[in-house]
């Protein structure tokens, strides 16, 4: 079985913001500030934008298949949004993996749905619900209660909104590195400064935390025994060591 744990990073879609609020001529930073202010007016507190107002700037993944494990960010730092999203859905088309996320059902996938729609990206395997492949009738990517997309935050909370936990805190609970001093709220500032590599590195560590929580989840469910869990964890460590990248070395150092 192929498993793809993933995470996305987003920034405000300032081009859409200009259209919505008549902000022609305003720069990206000021346009985003207007968008945040409008959102605070709607919510009374939070400036976190609605899903369709996000633009994807990074998609990172951990792919476990056969005897291999790969950790990477899709495309290149200079890749446009359409290319990143197309690569993501092409991977689903090729491998039909079990998707694993943390709040992917509540955030990542709805954002990817809207942005794929905007770019006209075809993803028939992802949208299959059993019409052409009967196996998808009982286990598809779209149903909240199916395992083909396992949103760990949703499942572990028992589908109770009041019981959900943040990824970084759950990672720390399990002795995993968590966010290593970074936070998703910093992505917009990093993007404005042109730090796409740092954003992609940060996204990769979130995907790693998600995958390692999934391994513990599989141990809890009995799909892995202790020896299997240790073997899979060691494969992650080996993969990161061999890559020799600074953010992977930092991750390994913080992993108890």
Can you characterise this structure?
By secondary structure, the chain is α/β, with parallel strands linked by helices. The protein has a single domain, classed as Nucleotidyltransferase, domain 5 (2-Layer Sandwich), CATH 3.30.420.10. Helices cover 52% and strands 14% of the residues. The protein has a 5-stranded mixed β-sheet with strand order 3-2-1-4-5, sandwiched between helices. It is globular, with a radius of gyration of 19 Å. The two termini are 28 Å apart. The model has no long low-confidence stretch (mean pLDDT 96).
Structure keywords:
256 residues, alpha/beta, Nucleotidyltransferase, domain 5, five-stranded mixed beta sheet, 52% helix, globular
The CATH superfamily turns out to be Ribonuclease H-like superfamily/Ribonuclease H
Major sheet: arrangement of strands: 3-2-1-4-5
User: Helicity, in percent?
Assistant: 40-55%
In what range is the share of β-strand residues? 5-15%
- Measured between the Cα atoms of the first and last residue, the distance is 28 Å
Rg computed from alpha carbons, rounded to a whole number of angstroms: 19 Å
Mean pLDDT: 96
User: How many β strands by DSSP?
Assistant: 5
Task: Sum up the overall morphology in one term.
Answer: globular
Assign the CATH topology: Nucleotidyltransferase, domain 5
What order do the helices and strands follow? Answer: EHHEEHEHHHEHHHHHH
The helix tally amounts to: 12
- Structural category: alpha/beta
> CATH class, please?
Alpha Beta
Flag low-confidence runs: none
How many domains, in number, for the residues? 1
Instruction: Using the 3D structure, state the CATH architecture.
Output: 2-Layer Sandwich
What kind of sheet is the major sheet? 5 strands, mixed
């Amino acid at each position: 079985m192929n498993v793809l744990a993933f995470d996305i990073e987003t920034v405000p879609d300032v081009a859409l913001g200009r259209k919505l609020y008549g902000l022609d001529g305003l720069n990206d930073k000021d346009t985003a500030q207007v968008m945040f202010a409008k959102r605070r007016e709607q919510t009374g507190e939070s400036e976190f934008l609605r899903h369709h107002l996000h633009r994807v700037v990074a998609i990172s993944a951990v792919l476990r298949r056969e005897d291999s494990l790969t950790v990477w960010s899709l495309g290149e730092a200079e890749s446009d949004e359409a290319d990143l999203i197309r690569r993501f859905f092409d991977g689903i088309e090729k491998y039909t993996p079990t998707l694993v996320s943390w709040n992917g059902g509540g955030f990542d996938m709805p954002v990817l749905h809207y942005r794929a729609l905007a770019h006209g990206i075809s993803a028939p395997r992802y949208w299959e619900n059993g019409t052409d492949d009967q196996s998808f009738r009982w286990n598809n990517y779209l149903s909240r209660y199916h395992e083909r997309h396992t949103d760990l935050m949703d499942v572990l909370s028992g589908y109770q909104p009041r019981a959900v936990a943040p990824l970084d805190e759950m990672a720390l609970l399990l002795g995993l590195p968590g966010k290593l001093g970074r936070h998703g709220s910093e992505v917009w500032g990093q993007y404005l400064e042109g730090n796409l590599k740092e954003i992609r590195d940060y996204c990769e560590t979130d995907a790693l935390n998600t995958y390692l929580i999934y391994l513990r989840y599989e141990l809890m469910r009995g799909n892995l025994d202790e020896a299997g869990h240790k073997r899979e964890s060691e494969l992650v460590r080996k993969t990161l060591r061999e890559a020799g990248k600074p953010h992977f070395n930092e991750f390994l150092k913080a992993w108890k």
